[in-house]
Amino acid sequence: MEHKQLDQFPKDFLWGSASAAYQVEGAWQEDGKGVSVWDEFVRIPGKTFKGTNGDVAVDHYHRYKEDVALMKEQGLKAYRFSVAWTRIFPNGRGEINQAGLQFYIDLVDELIANQIEPVLTLYHWDLPQALQDEYQGWESRKIVADFTNYAQVLFEALRGKVKYWVSLNEQNIFISHGYLMASHPPAVSDPKRMYQANHYANLANAAVIKKFHDMDMPGKIGPSFAYSPNYPLDSDPQNVLAAEDSEDLNAHFWMDVYLFGKYPIAALKLLKEQGVAPIIEPEDDELLAAGKPDFLGINYYQTNTVVFNPLDGVGLGRMNTTGEKGSSEESGLPGVFKRVENPFVERTNWDWEIDPEGLRIGLRRITSRYRIPVLITENGLGEYDKLTEAKEIHDDYRIDYLKGHIHAIREAITDGVDVLGYCTWSYTDLLSWLNGYQKRYGFVYVAQDENQEGSLNRYKKDSFYWYQKVIQNNGNTI
Ligand code: BGP
């Protein structure tokens, strides 16, 4: 629908930007930090682009004051970051490592002193290696107690200071990449193990949310889901059904559990037929029902256009992690769906489809199905950037991308969607898990190249100044 006039963004809208510990901090062995599964995984030859790792990353651990000063200059209202579990508990549990905890207390204090709302992610994929070794991490029910215990330490330490908490970042991604595509640790490829690990992650998520509410914590908590709304390629009923199936298996399969405490019917039935459904204990339903989030975090990058895929059709294909346009392979689930190119949208050099309208569509779907406020916890464009001799970065393509998506949010707000805020991915340039340092997302350029050499100096991109104005006008000129 087209509105005659668009609503204004709410006055207290959180104009923000985001990062994750492993991708920015570096200092991987400092101040008592333990080893995470990513610290180990990146050392296995061939796992990441050109063997890049987060040992130094963009050195945010030592430069956080400089980074926060840049945020302040830009006028950022919120900064989303994650805590490295291994800084708090080097071995996942046991004695608290005070120096590690202090880093986050200092970061939060620095943000608050600069009028920036901290949005804290409890888990952005860097599981303590000790828990992986001891009981296979997410593949054990034991993770629920350890994750809750770790979260409680942060709840207590930052009570009243941090008002927005993200429980798990992109459970759907770390589980599917970790246990099916084998592209993230622990590099397993087994659907049965994947769905069981996913079930324990659901329990851990619910337990942490329940703990937050039981402790009467001021503020709000919710998971961040990587949502790629599904489209059928055309109106062939087979393809429409394939899109419904993809929405069920790739989206409702997580969001329904977060919001309804139940898996979607058709998806679970299919997994049972295939013998890969998770074992669900009777008491699990109770916990899932008791751990309802206050908001849903959404990470939005692209939509997913599908057609029907016969039983002898394509399976998992390779992703483009090189930035060589057109190098990704076809991918699908035999008997259900396969992904195809959407002929109506452009693609990035990493083959990600650029579809601002898809964000509005996704926000509308969430609102209709779940009636819950949404915090957009990630959205952005990963591209090559060029530092000119004058030390400038003319990233007009990023400005176009963000402008289109902010406009789509404004339209969604006008449709009646309750959006709490918008965090771009990412604040500074940072390490892209599988794509190295050349795939850049930041408002702030960091001199760090593929060989992990560079001054690590920060330079403001054109998009930095553009977003500064957006914030000044509370988005209402877009
Ligand atoms: C999300 C992750 C982020 C970030 C982003 C961009 O899935 O939550 O941590 O990496 O995607 O992805 P990529 O780095 O693969 O381009």
From TrEMBL:
<comment type="similarity">
    <text>Belongs to the glycosyl hydrolase 1 family.</text>
</comment>
<dbReference type="InterPro" id="IPR033132">
    <property type="entry name" value="GH_1_N_CS"/>
</dbReference>
<dbReference type="GO" id="GO:0005829">
    <property type="term" value="C:cytosol"/>
</dbReference>
<dbReference type="InterPro" id="IPR001360">
    <property type="entry name" value="Glyco_hydro_1"/>
</dbReference>
<keyword id="KW-0378">Hydrolase</keyword>
<dbReference type="GO" id="GO:0016052">
    <property type="term" value="P:carbohydrate catabolic process"/>
</dbReference>
<dbReference type="InterPro" id="IPR017853">
    <property type="entry name" value="GH"/>
</dbReference>
<dbReference type="GO" id="GO:0008422">
    <property type="term" value="F:beta-glucosidase activity"/>
</dbReference>
<feature type="active site" description="Nucleophile">
    <location>
        <position position="378"/>
    </location>
</feature>
<keyword id="KW-0326">Glycosidase</keyword>
<protein>
    <submittedName>
        <fullName>Aryl-phospho-beta-D-glucosidase</fullName>
    </submittedName>
</protein>
<dbReference type="InterPro" id="IPR018120">
    <property type="entry name" value="Glyco_hydro_1_AS"/>
</dbReference>
<dbReference type="Pfam" id="PF00232">
    <property type="entry name" value="Glyco_hydro_1"/>
</dbReference>
